[in-house]
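For reproducibility, we list the full input for the adenosine-5'-diphosphate complex.
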Amino acid sequence: MLKFIRVTKKYNPDKIALDSVTFNVDSGELILITGPSGSGKTTILKLLNKEEEPTDGEIYFKEENINSLRRSRVPLHRRKIGAVFQDYKLLPELNIWENIALALSILGHPDHEIEEKVTDLLKLVDLTDKAYLFPHQLSGGEAQRISIARALSTAPELIFADEPTGNLDEDNSRIVAKLLKKINELGTTVIVTTHDPVVIKTLSGARKMTLENGELTDSKQKEDKKDKLEKSKEEKEDNQEVDEKEKKEKKKENFPKKKQSSKDEVEKKESSLNFFGLFGKKKKEEKTEDKEDKADDDDDKKNEDKKSDDEDIKTDKDEKKKEDKTEKTDSDLAEDKKGIVKVEDLDDDDKASKNTKKVKKDK
Ligand code: ADP
Ligand code: MG
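The corresponding predicted structure, in tokenized form, follows.
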């Protein structure tokens, strides 16, 4: 129902009363604007009822941009907002009844309607018995309750009470704060500016905004931001979870590939290291057969080539080495099932074996 959008008010170039103030009030809300003296509370009301114009920014009341409101329409606009002031602003020459009835009378409402309305409002503020007294005959608390009754006379949709208990003692502050709460509960949107702890405590359920040096902090915006942050954090965590899941899934998908590649690697190694006969049981058997064939061939060559003796010795040695390696190769195969890691281990072993062989060869 009410929007302040980056509203700045400078009374003079050096005096910033409101500094890019933004807030939003929904119909039916109870709002507490707290802030020390000089923080800009009254300026908000003055801008709202067109006593002052903003230096910058926009103000919407019931979807209407009040910056561009024609002068002739200002009285009608003001009737939609019931203002309650710290110093009551009752007309001293009129009695209580007349003070409450004045606006309706100016608007030309029929007498019986005015009578009914004023009677109801006096009941609401519990001051029926003071109807024919004059303002100076009332206590501060009573005068403020009458000013609230007067503010309600035109059935405004918004009551703006600017430091309504500024001149009251604790008991009267509590009575006035409770009255404003009751009016809100009856359906009217209520904004209260205050730095009175009694009002803050009595209206503890209200939505709070804080003004300091013309800068406004809106607890709802903070909450919204917090909610958004938490939401985005949750979303981030959810996304991370999904990412992790996807990664795991991908890993799973890739796993056989990796295994394959590890196998490929092994094959490669095998082909390059076949000479040493260092691979898996099955391979070892194949290898043994190969070796046996080779040995047969070697046997054939024995007579022809003197080197074949050396080969036999070498084959025996290789066989022993193969047996030694068989256990390790079994576990290597098991590890191989887990992935690529063991290939690196094989590399080391292979290297080691290669080196050993080299040394042997050198010998
Ligand atoms: P609050 O109601 O929180 O005490 P106000 O809105 O009345 O604060 O004032 C905010 C600031 O603007 C104060 O520093 C005040 O002195 C200054 N101010 C208010 N009205 C005028 C004005 N008509 N001319 C110059 N400065 C003003
Ligand atoms: Mg003020």
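Residues 256-317, 319-363 have pLDDT under 50 and may be disordered. The longest strand covers residues 2-12. Both points were considered when choosing residues for closer inspection.
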